[in-house]
Amino acid sequence: MADTADITLLLDAAREGDRGALDRVLSTLYQELHTMARRQLAGQHGQTLDATALVHEAYLKLVGRREAQFDDRAHFFAYAASAMRSVVVDYARQRLAQKRGGDLHRVTELPDDVEGGLRLDEETLGLDTALTKLAGVDPRLAQVVELRYFAGLSELEIAALLQRSERSIRRDWQKARLYLLASLKDA
């Protein structure tokens, strides 16, 4: 991982309006973002969305939003995870619309381990809807889900980014999973 102090300085400069600083942050953290994207898309053979395309699309979302400000490394990665989620959901919507009119079906499970990668289908769309509802109830839980499920980070990595204990992240992940499963079954 890149030096946190350097990243924080670059993020401060980016917050002041220095677009070059944001570009340097992204180039410094590109490999980490690419690793996140690769984990997220594992097992998606034959798809037009690959890890590089996902990082580039997320980058466009990051730089395209003028109001996007990153206080620190954790905030940057939370925003990057949200941008990746948006790209994946948009991609799944587009695929479904082309495939069969975008019909959704019910999701009945949410895996504890996302090592196998996300499925780019109606399950992702159902999860996105449920996650949006969760964010309205408890934004902290929704952030943990985004970092874990959409960015592919481990509980230990999330704990380090959010400066919380791994145990509290594990509890948040379990609470969020229960909420999401209940929400998905009611859909």
UniProtKB/TrEMBL annotation:
SUPFAM superfamilies xref list: Sigma2 domain of RNA polymerase sigma factors, Sigma3 and sigma4 domains of RNA polymerase sigma factors
Positions of transmembrane segments: none
Database matches in InterPro entries: HTH_Sigma70_ECF-like, RNA_pol_sigma-70-like, RNA_pol_sigma-70_dom, RNA_pol_sigma70_ECF-like, RNA_pol_sigma_r2, RNA_pol_sigma_r3/r4-like, WH-like_DNA-bd_sf
Entry keyword set: Sigma factor, Transcription, Transcription regulation
Keyword Transcription regulation attributed: yes
Pfam families: Sigma70_ECF
Superkingdom of this protein's organism: Bacteria
Domain RNA polymerase sigma-70 ECF-like HTH: 5-184
Gene3D superfamilies: 1.10.1740.10, Winged helix-like DNA-binding domain superfamily/Winged helix DNA-binding domain (1.10.10.10)
Family: Belongs to the sigma-70 factor family. ECF subfamily.
Protein name (database record): Sigma-70 family RNA polymerase sigma factor
Annotated source species: Lysobacter niastensis
